[in-house]
Amino acid sequence: MKQLMRILTLAVAAFSAPAFAANAACEATAKEKKLAGAALTSFMKKCEADAAGASSCEAMAAQKKLAGAAKTSFVTKCEKDGAGSAGGGAQAKCDAMAAEKKLAGAAKTSFTKKCVTDAGG
Q: Pseudo-torsion of CA 34, 88, 115, 103, nearest 10°?
């Protein structure tokens, strides 16, 4: 039981560290641009969503066990498609759910399409 708690603690720490780093980077950029009020709020929301998109693309690449050029290509395309941003967050979540269900081929395509539609994306 103690070992399980240690593993869970480490997992939470590993997944929350990139969020803190992204938030600090976004805050630094906002301060540099001297943003305030609604402009600051809007910038922070977009910056954090973009950072979350990048990390979710990295996570999906790790889940697919990609490395080297294949990983770089996948992450670049994923970020370009906006898989982790506000517009494509549903796609990333649906892809992850399909992977968890171990769906492939037409079943994966059908599931993902319906999932994204149901999510309003």
A: -120
- Please enumerate in sequence order all residues whose Cβ is within 8 A of that of 69, keeping only pairs 6 or more positions apart, or say none: none
Q: Which residues contact 57 (CB under 8 A, 6 or more apart)?
A: 74, 75, 78, 79, 83, 84, 92
Whether the Cβ atoms of residue 92 and residue 60 lie closer than 8 Å to each other: yes
Alpha-carbon gap, residue 117 to 121, rounded angstroms: 6
- What is the rounded radius of gyration, in angstroms, for the C-alpha atoms of the chain? 17
pLDDT of residue 86: 44
The pLDDT of 36-63, averaged and rounded, is 78
Say how many residues make up the chain: 121
Give residue 17's pLDDT band: very low, low, confident or very high (50, 70, 90): very low
Question: Which residue would you say has higher pLDDT here, 13 or 81?
Answer: 81
- Alpha carbons within 13 angstroms on the beta-carbon side of residue 26 total 20
The pLDDT, as a whole number, for residue 68 is 92
Q: Is residue 84 within 8 Å of residue 57, measured between CB atoms?
A: yes
